[in-house]
Amino acid sequence: MKTLDDLLAEGVSGRRVLVRSDLNVPLDGDRITDDGRIRASLPTITRLAEAGARVVVTAHLGRPKGAPDPKFSLKPVAARLAELLGAAVPLADDVVGPSAKSTVDSLADGGVALLENVRFDPRETSKDDAERGELAGELAALAGESGVFVSDGFGVVHRKQASVYDVALVLPGYAGGLVLTELEVLRKLTGSPDRPYVVVLGGSKVSDKLAVIESLLPKVDRLLVGGGMCFTFMAAEGLGVGDSLLEADMIDTCKRLLAESGDKIMLPADVVIADKFAADAHTETVLAAQLREGWLGLDIGPITAERYSEVIAEAATIFWNGPMGVFELAPFAEGTRAIAQAIVDSKAFSVVGGGDSAAAVRALGLPEDGFSHISTGGGASLEYLEGNPLPGIEVLERS
């Protein structure tokens, strides 16, 4: 697989480089609430610009329905990217149309431009190879005869999409620095990680994490379960879960997992419960066996946080994916904060698996450099750990 270093060694001055970045940031209106993915994309973009490339960035935001939608415009992203680069970043009004062409044509050496949300074009996510290939060809045409493609959006490499996969069939493809770093970290987790190896899993549903649970259980020393998914495990143990999130059709699966690997799986001993899903709810902290009807669990309790923290303190390798509770609401943020702080305080090689976990680190004001690595791709990370192919990586390995 060719890399960014290989491309820079070849020389990029005056050449157009199409970069697929992952700039899918959360927005509150037109305000970016977490710019972590933009900042993670900067090193590759900066290295190319400083080497004199004409950098054309393509990215998506949200899930528009294959047509322009103002609420999913990359306008706020372009503004923030310009602030961080300290240089203007013109945003094309379209993906591959007249505005994209004129925007790219006006780039000077060392300039950076951003194409509008690539998912505004329905061909980006089409299941039809020919349709995706058509869009890929038009993206390649923007790069010109000496153009090349750099894949740096790790958060989308598990998608077989035009700007991720098909464009690398048309242009010479290279792996960007961010993609290479992510792969290196994940290989440490799937190779021979230092032990004890502890995985902390949260989030809403067991069904969303089942494949990664089954893949990781044979390899880990401890699996610490929190978030909404813990209540299905608790139900599998015969405990009442009140009005908590419950996947009834997954109870038998959880029973099987506990029977096969119960010595590795740790479940909450206590939980924070509420009479409604709201920041102003009445709350109590009860033992797991005392969760009653009419109440719902929204966070792990302090006993659990302490027990989990003790395991984390002894770990040599830690992978964390998914918050321990509804951290966005202050009364239910302490479990996630305690676990994250325990990981920061540990001496382990620690990986935060992107998504809500990465958002929680920043939202709770925890030091990002307290973790060995914060992934930009939650879904891609889990796919890799499950042993599934990543189309956006496979195509680079073939090019």
Main-sheet strand order equals 10-9-8-14-15-16
Strand count, sense and closure of the main sheet?
A: 6 strands, parallel
Query: What's the helix count?
Result: 14
The counted number of beta strands is 16
Structure classification = alpha/beta
Mean pLDDT: 95
Termini gap: 7 Å
Strand content: 15-25%
Poorly predicted tracts of residues:
none
Rg over CA atoms:
22 Å
Gross geometry? elongated
Report on the architecture of this protein.
With 399 residues, this protein is of the alpha/beta class. It is 37% helix and 15% strand. The chain has 14 helices and 16 strands. The strands form four sheets. It has a six-stranded parallel sheet, sandwiched between helices. It has a five-stranded parallel sheet with strand order 5-4-1-6-7, sandwiched between helices. It has a three-stranded antiparallel sheet with strand order 12-11-13. α2 crosses α3, α8 crosses α9 (251-261) and α10 packs parallel to α11 (334-345). The protein is elongated, with a radius of gyration of 22 Å. The mean pLDDT is 95.
A few lines on this structure:
By secondary structure, this protein is of the alpha/beta class. It has helices at 4-10, 36-50, 75-85, 98-105, 129-143, 177-190, 206-216, 230-236, 251-261, 302-313, 334-345, 355-363, 378-385, 391-398, and strands spanning 16-20, 27-28, 31-32, 54-58, 112-114, 148-151, 173-175, 197-201, 222-225, 265-266, 270-274, 283-287, 296-300, 317-321, 349-352, 373-374.
